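for the writeup, i need someone to sanity check this before i put it in the appendix. the sequnce is what the collaborator sent (i think, or maybe the updated version? ugh). structure was predicted straight from it, no edits. if anything looks off just tell me and ill rerun, i have time this weekend
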Amino acid sequence: MKRILTTIVLTALITTANSYACTNLIVTNGASARGYNMVSYSADSHTRYGVLVHYPAAVYPKGSMLKVYEWGKDRYLGEIPQVEKTYSVIGNMNEHQVVIGESTWGGVESLYDPEGIVDYGSLMYIALQRAKTAREAIEVITSLANKYGYVSTGESISIADKNEAWILEIIGKAPKKVNGVNVNKGAVWVAVRIPDGYISGHANQARITTFPKNDPANCLYSKDVITHAREHGLYRGGDEEFSFADTYGPADAATIRGCDARVWSFFNKHSSEDMSKYLDYALGKNIKNRMPLYVKAKSKLSLKEVADMMRDHYEGTAMDMTQDIGAGGNALPYRWRPMGFKADGKDYLNERAIATQQTGFWFVGECRPDVPDEIGGIFWFGVDDAATSPLTPVYTSSKEISYHYALGNGSMLEYSPESMFWATNRIAQFAYLRYNHIGAEVRSVIDKHENQKIEETKAIDMAAKEMLKSSPAMVKDFVTSYSVSAADALFRQWKKLDEYLLVKFMDGNTKKQNEDGSFKNNGHTTKIPPTPDFPGYTELWKKAVKESAGERLSL
């Protein structure tokens, strides 16, 4: 989870690439087409298996203890007292419509406490089980970190509920041992509320710079956030000029290009101001030209627009990954790791877009103030690379989840034919071979599915609201049944899509089809197709091969 700070640009880039590099986008009620706070999150890691976790609501006897395990590693950290009552959690959203996401930025190494009991992942899920609002979640996370010791590096954490959306940034305190005991355990932190009508995001780089010290409605912070930095020689200026990000998570050109550029791409598409003035910053050419923490949205964003932003590869920008020969002959907007490479003695980099091949799971959480918690928000959930992965709607009041998304159904080391993660991966791996053809077809199927589900959930909402009036005890069963059946149906559809794509696109060809989508035959038998289409390669690739091969391939 650590990104080692270094003055060597390429080393910083590679280190960031090898960490759990995630992306969060935040849309406030006033910037949303339906008036819902939305948080999107991709959990990106080369070792993370995509599952939908479910923590049912529970009541515990007094004196119960909670065993804490490091998220993503399953390393036992210790135990803390359990509360008497916990709330139901579906994925990263609870029954009170609190949603949480994160991205890791590492920060100053000397602040890491290896003996802490709570890590950022356990804190997120504990907070979801204990908090009814975003502010309560901030209190749970920061108080537990201070009481039991924070065993992670620097984190940005998105936290939203039906009324507010926040970014919390947190990093540990430098350990100080007295008689073998760390008397300095805990964390320093700051949390900023995103104003209504604005959008924000973070992507593995600390984002909060200066912040108001006397505005608890919009900014919260640890009392020692500045003094701790002074005590450890990290800051010497005045309180008003103190920048959390520059002090605890300073960035260089490489980390901006590999991290904050993803937020720039979001702002570039949806900000009311011209973001081209920050392009030199996003490219890492002018790191002092920092983007704002949040910007006003130019128009109200729909759920589909937020989901599609998670599929971004910098298309149409100076960082468009299809515009150099690294995209191969089929416009592939991906670059396999490592992100840096050397050629003719010079260092180069590959872009890191929001959509990436190593995503474990991703989501868009809708916090809906006009929908009772008995029905809940909608947790739109997907697994693997967002660009080739469909979202399925899961109501946060659901009592069960689909087996195809459940923990224990396969792993990163165990293939399961019943796992949506593996079904989605099969399609993604095939799409990467001829992305401009196979990837485009997958995207068309995704769009049709998601647009259908968006309309479908509106009807489910109406039915659930009516049911709440007459048969309130049945509502949770109703939305549970819908959520599970929708996920199950999507799994079956994706299994069939896998088979269909193989038949259509095998051997670099494209089989001809009738208007209804069925495959054409040769006119003599239904078992043999006519000669397929040979789409070949992009013009960019042809010219690159010509330059590389010279006269060897000329006729």
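The two ends are 53 Å apart (CA to CA). The chain is about 30% helix and 20% strand.
thx in advance!!
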